[in-house]
């Protein structure tokens, strides 16, 4: 039923619960699981130049962050007994909400499984949560998993 599952992950405790559900679905349906981690703190080249910090220094810091993120994802998958499933880890930079939608449109998943922690800040009430944005803008089914408290 589901050949390709996309699971956006922000490495929070709450998103780990959604990852556990995505792993279960991938195992049940023998699906490929694509784990997407988006970093909005990365700067584009114009922003790097404007920050007047060495671009090489910033790029090296980004490589370290990306490496740490990938290792955290692999640790989480292992901890959730997901080593036996077919998986791919994708790291992206940019606006989290838009990057999830853009990447989904690139890989055409059968379902997106993601976590949410609800609206817990004024910013969330004004701009909406990432999950609500994905639900409203995705052409693919979205399974939103409430954060495990």
If you had to describe this structure to a student in words, what would you say it looks like?
Helix 4 (96-107) runs parallel beside helix 6. The chain is α/β, with parallel strands linked by helices and 149 residues long. Strand 1 (4-8), helix 1 and strand 2 (32-39) form a beta-alpha-beta unit. The radius of gyration is 16 Å and the shape is globular. Strands 3-2-1-4-5 form a 5-stranded parallel sheet, with helices on both faces. The relative contact order is 0.23. It has one domain: HUPs (Rossmann fold, 3-Layer(aba) Sandwich), CATH 3.40.50.620. Helix content is 50%, strand content 21%. It starts with a strand and ends with a strand.
Q: How is the topology of this model organized?
A:
Layout lengths: L3 E5 L4 H17 L2 E8 L5 H7 L3 H25 L6 E8 L2 H12 L3 E6 L5 H6 L2 H8 L4 E5 L3
Helix pairs in contact: 4-6
